[in-house]
Design a protein that fits this description.
This protein has helices spanning 18-25, 43-52, 92-110, 137-145, 174-177, 180-196, 223-237, 248-253, 268-278, 314-338, 341-362, and strands spanning 5-10, 35-41, 59-62, 73-77, 116-119, 152-156, 161-164, 205-208, 242-246, 262-265, 284-288, 294-297. Helix 6 crosses helix 7. Helix content is 40%, strand content 16%. By secondary structure, the protein is of the alpha/beta class. The radius of gyration is 23 Å and the shape is globular. A 12-stranded mixed beta sheet has the order 3-4-2-1-5-12-11-6-7-10-8-9, with helices on both faces. It folds into 2 domains: 1-150 and 283-363, Isopropylmalate Dehydrogenase (3-Layer(aba) Sandwich), CATH 3.40.718.10; 159-278, Isopropylmalate Dehydrogenase (3-Layer(aba) Sandwich), CATH 3.40.718.
């Protein structure tokens, strides 16, 4: 593991606040003590944003992350020089520029040139094309870098971690796509991530109900009795410490989320509304379950304030820190499992000592 982790940061939608929050984060020189940042985007666009918010941050233009300099904000040019910036306006051009940056970051990750990926917000409609036909970043990265593994979206802040059983499904379709196997799979991925990525040896997971009042024992829907409860029961037999299903309103209203290491919500807004209500500015979106470490700030393009210097950089800063911490946690775990002889030696030494003690008593 390199002393400074190389963080690849995609520019996101050039008409939103992506560049603003990136520039604000790296206006603090202490950030370079933790990582070497490489922005995939456009030097021209970054200059335009820098002037718009009167940022003092300088940057270094490089051909690829391989040429990145420490203690500098590095930029890899992924877009044509004539890419146009229209603050606050979603355009097909801005969507295409966002995809070109994302595509290059994924390519350089595959080549081993960056350690982690942090994505600035995109517009999910304008980025759509024949090359990008996914609901969002998560599904694209799963397809490109998942190596057959399934992704789990975890949203987190200082108060809680919320994972989603279903992600970008219309609310009218959530019940039809929810299955016992799906819930069990998400619980497995979540437990593994809590251990591997966050260093929690025996994580406790709360599982939310789908229906109001957890269906009142079948009076308001049958998903709890037929899908969620059986999934929890079977997961417990696999030594997953999971509990529920809990009615979502009372669970969050009573502060019960504080008793658990993570929460598995059944659909997007069920988990994200309480998380964002508690701490909107510092939320982080983490794509768990994949070989790549990918995080993102937990906000959108914020077109209404783009180019005005009003955006908070806290979520982007936390996303970068989260990516660094998770990468280090995985490296530490890999190192421990790569050399199990230490534990084996101590285990056998203990047995040997006991036998010696018994031999001494016999004498």
């Amino acid at each position: 593991m390199s002393e400074r982790i190389i963080v690849g940061i995609t520019q996101g939608d050039v008409n939103g606040i992506g560049y603003e929050v990136i520039l604000k984060v790296f206006s603090d020189p202490t950030m370079f003590e933790f990582c070497t940042p490489v922005v995939y985007g456009s030097p021209k666009v970054m200059t335009y944003h820098r002037k718009a918010i009167d940022s003092p941050v300088n940057f270094n233009v490089v051909d690829s992350a391989s040429d990145a300099q420490q203690d500098r904000l590095n930029v890899v040019n992924c877009n044509p020089d004539d890419v146009k910036v229209d603050f606050g306006i979603p355009t097909q051009e801005s969507g295409q520029a966002a995809f070109q940056a994302l595509e290059r970051a994924v390519k350089e990750y595959k080549e081993g040139k960056i350690d982690v990926i942090v994505t600035a917000p995109i517009n999910k409609k304008t980025i759509h094309s024949d090359a990008f036909h996914f609901p969002g970043h998560t599904e694209y990265i799963e397809a490109q870098l998942g190596e057959g593994n399934h992704a789990l979206m975890i949203l987190m802040n200082s108060s809680m971690r919320v994972a989603l059983a279903t992600v970008h499904e219309p609310i009218s379709k959530v019940a039809s796509v929810l299955t016992k196997d799906l819930v069990k799979e998400k619980l497995r991925i979540l437990q593994k991530s809590l251990k591997q990525d966050f260093g929690i040896e025996i994580p406790r997971i709360a599982v939310l109900a789908l229906n109001p009042h957890a269906s009142d024992d079948g009076l308001i829907g049958n998903e709890e009795n037929e899908i969620i409860k059986p999934a929890i029961d079977e997961a417990v037999t696999e030594k997953i410490q999971c509990f529920g299903p809990f009615p979502a309103d009372g669970f969050f209203g009573n502060g019960d989320y504080r008793k658990f290491d993570a929460v598995l919500a059944m659909y997007h807004d069920q988990g994200l509304i309480p998380l964002k209500a508690l701490d909107m500015e510092c939320g982080v979106n983490f794509t768990a379950g994949l070989p790549v470490v990918r995080t993102s700030p937990d906000h959108g393009t914020a077109y209404d304030i783009a180019g005005k210097g009003l955006a908070s950089e806290e979520s982007m800063r936390e996303a970068i820190f989260a990516a660094i911490d998770i990468f280090r946690s995985r490296c530490n775990e890999a190192e421990i499992h790569a050399n199990p002889l230490g534990k084996l030696y101590f285990d056998r030494r203990d047995d040997s000592d006991k036998l010696k003690h018994l031999d001494t008593e016999k004498e």
